[in-house]
Amino acid sequence: MDLIYKFKDITEENITKWYSLSGDEFCNMKPYTLDEKLSIEKEILYSIDGSFGTLNEFPEEEEKRKKWVKDFTSLIESQFRGISILDEELKDYFLSSGIGEAIKKFLCRAVKEEETLTIENIMQAMKNFIVMNIIQLILGKDVEVTESAYAYSMLYPYTDNYLDDPLLNSNMKTKINERLYKKLKGEEISSNNIYEDKLFSLVDNIESQYSREAFEEVFESLVLIHEAQVRSLIQQENIIPFQNDIISISFSKGGTSVLADGYLVAGELSENAIRFLLGYGVVLQLGDDIQDIKSDKLSNSNTIFSILAGKYNLEALTNKLFRFIDNLVSIDLQSMDFEKKELMTKFIRENSFLLVLYSVCRSKTYFERRYIKELERYLPVRVKFLKMVDKKIKKQSKRFKKNFSEEDFKLICKYLEE
After folding, report:
1. pLDDT tens digits along 284-343
2. Deepest in the core among 17, 113, 249, 263, taking most CB within 10 A?
3. Considering the domain boundaries, does residue 61 fall inside one?
4. What is the CATH number of the domain that holds 256?
């Protein structure tokens, strides 16, 4: 039960910290010149064209496919090495760590095993898996597709989207949640349908790596994220500010999500690691909340950003988030010991800043033009480029889907996996 108390105490500390941070302008980020932005934009366009171009050239002839796999793998590595906003030492570290190989194996397994999920759903799961890869490095673990890492990442599209869907019957959600809760708690329970079959089998995968007796806190962390997700259903209700503690809901949901990542990576965690992971989860959650302001408002999902957007100034909240990130990496992350500490600290700091910058620019309608112009200085591309590159990716994706069916994509993944 110690974990539950630690979670509550540290979450309260994070909320107190949030309120204590200044909402004044935050400028402790790296600015980019116009020439640098144009160069990075050129890199991105080259990468998109190269990747999709090679995908669309997947050969029909069996004897040419192995060479295609070799060429495609070399292309991806070359494009990664060409990312100028990453340090050369960091790129070497990531490539030698096996992250690329782990991502490829995860994608291929998901496409092969998760027949009911769309490619978009699988990409959502892969986003969480990549976070787990970063945590594997910080916690000194091998970067690999473990049963727990795979299962927990796949639970995201199977549960999160289901719970967040405002069109689904609330009674059905409640029943599913209650039964999944019992499964996570270790109670004997049989599935009632295909959906529960999948959920329960993913929990079984986690149990195949971690026994409940030896790793009690692993399963406590899963119960905590489940409780936080269920509690977050309150955000879909028609509420007004101060009716419910929205900030506590967001901090709990985000924090427990990444806390579970850490437990499933390592099996056990120090208090310093718990503190960092809970804070990092808050950063990722609030970054997503900024990006989702429009969709959250349309679905009446209330976050600290969507509930105020269009009514109050969001700049102070965003500046608080920048300061929260700065505090997280300079204090909580620094309290931990791990390989390449300086390098990884810089990466997490800048990557977290970029998440917020990107999200604000995606939701620029809800921010003052002056503020967007100021933040654009720290974005490695121009704001207008974001919209343009979105259209390009959608166009390339549409072309790929036209040329290749889901079965074709599975075949491509099969060859990539070999």
Report:
1. 999 999 999 999 888 888 899 998 998 888 999 999 999 999 999 999 999 999 989 999
2. 263
3. no
4. 1.10.600.10
Q: Is the pTM of this model over 0.85?
A: yes
Range of the domain at 225: 2-30+86-381
Instruction: Tell me the C-alpha to C-alpha distance, in Å, between residue 254 and each of 123, 169, 225, 348.
Output: 19, 24, 8, 16
CB 279 within 8 A of CB 328: yes
**Taking the CA of residue 29 as centre, how many other CA atoms within 13 Å lie in the half-sphere pointing to its CB?**
27
CA angle 7, 269, 1 (to 5 degrees): 45
| DSSP conformation class of 240 | -
Does residue 325 fall inside a structural domain? yes
User: Angle at Cα 232 formed by Cα 168 and Cα 110, nearest 5°?
Assistant: 65
Angstrom distance (rounded) from CA 27 to CA 31: 9
Q: How far apart are CA 273 and CA 45, in angstroms?
A: 38
In a domain, 152, yes or no: yes
Count of domains observed in the chain: 1
Q: How confident is the model at residue 164 (pLDDT cuts 50, 70, 90)?
A: low
**CA angle, 289 then 293 then 295, to 5°:** 110
Asked whether residue 334 is assigned to any structural domain, the reply reads yes
Do the Cβ atoms of 276 and 328 come closer than 8 Å?
A: yes
Q: Is 42 exposed, middle or buried (0-12, 13-18, 19+ CB in 10 A)?
A: exposed
Residue with tokens 């994070």: 14
Write down the pLDDT at residue 292. 94
Query: Tokens representing 380?
Result: 């490695």
DSSP state letters, 133-178 = HHHHHHTT------HHHHHHHHHIIIIIHHHH-TTS-HHHHHHHHH
Residue pair 326/28 in contact (Cβ under 8 Å)? The answer is yes
3-state SS class at 381: coil
